[in-house]
Specification:
By secondary structure, the chain is an alpha/beta fold. It contains eight helices and five strands; from the N terminus they run αβββαααβαβααα. It has a five-stranded mixed β-sheet, with helices on both faces.
């Protein structure tokens, strides 16, 4: 797997259009990562667009709340009414946002070569990659860390059949005893995700497993 990832990075570096962004391929600063979250016009990575993006740096076991990136983006498509109900951002709220072409260079410099941490990170990265490809001819080369995957390993690894698996954002937050902030705000979501990540990494380092409810017994009825 590591060999394939290294090969992919070499290919991406070869395809990079703008050498000013070679820093994306530098070795990541030791012990650092970036928690990232996007709010969008809808849930289609192909059709929808970004309306807000936030990122927070993590160093060792600390969240560097003062080292944060936030931007309102003027989307290229209209907001889906269902999305407005979730993040409560209306057309008039995002009309004053910057074009993604103006936001992306600052965001990429903030992220650098650090691994990206997120919840449902695949979607956020897909939304960003649409614009990164247009700008640089490549997708983001950063390593990706999905917190729900770490949580699953810590709680449900080797779970017996019938175990109920709950990977919802707020369920994970509650299970880890972490405070709930305003959800569906890009900065708050990135901050809560960073808290999840550090808590789970601490559990993993200490060999702590997250307790789970016993599977319900299966009843058998004879005829």
């Amino acid at each position: 797997m590591l060999l394939l990832l290294n090969l992919k990075r070499r290919v991406l570096l070869h395809l990079l259009r703008d050498p000013a962004y070679r820093f994306l391929f530098d070795p990541a600063p030791p012990g650092e990562a970036v928690s990232i979250d996007c709010e969008t016009t809808g849930l289609s990575a192909r059709k929808d667009d970004i309306v807000t993006v936030a990122a927070i740096r993590i160093r060792d076991n600390r969240i560097l709340a003062s080292e944060r990136f936030e931007a309102m983006v003027k989307p290229r498509v209209r907001l889906n009414p269902d999305a407005i109900k979730v993040h409560r951002l209306r057309e008039q709220d995002v009309a004053g946002g910057r074009p993604i072409e103006a936001v992306l260079p600052d965001l990429l410099r903030f992220i650098g070569s650090r691994p990206l941490v997120g919840f449902y990170l695949e979607f956020d990265v897909a939304m960003l990659n649409k614009h990164v490809r247009r700008m640089l001819g490549i997708e983001l080369p950063n390593a990706q860390i999905e917190v729900s995957g770490i949580y699953y390993e810590q709680k449900y690894r080797d779970a017996p059949p019938g175990t109920e698996v709950d990977l919802r954002f707020m369920s994970i937050l509650r299970d880890l005893g972490l405070p709930a902030l305003a959800q569906h705000d890009a900065y708050s979501d990135a901050l809560m995700t960073a808290m999840m990540y550090l808590t789970l990494e601490d559990y993993r380092a200490r060999g702590v497993r997250i307790p789970r409810a016993r599977a319900r017994p299966v009843a058998f009825y004879g005829g």
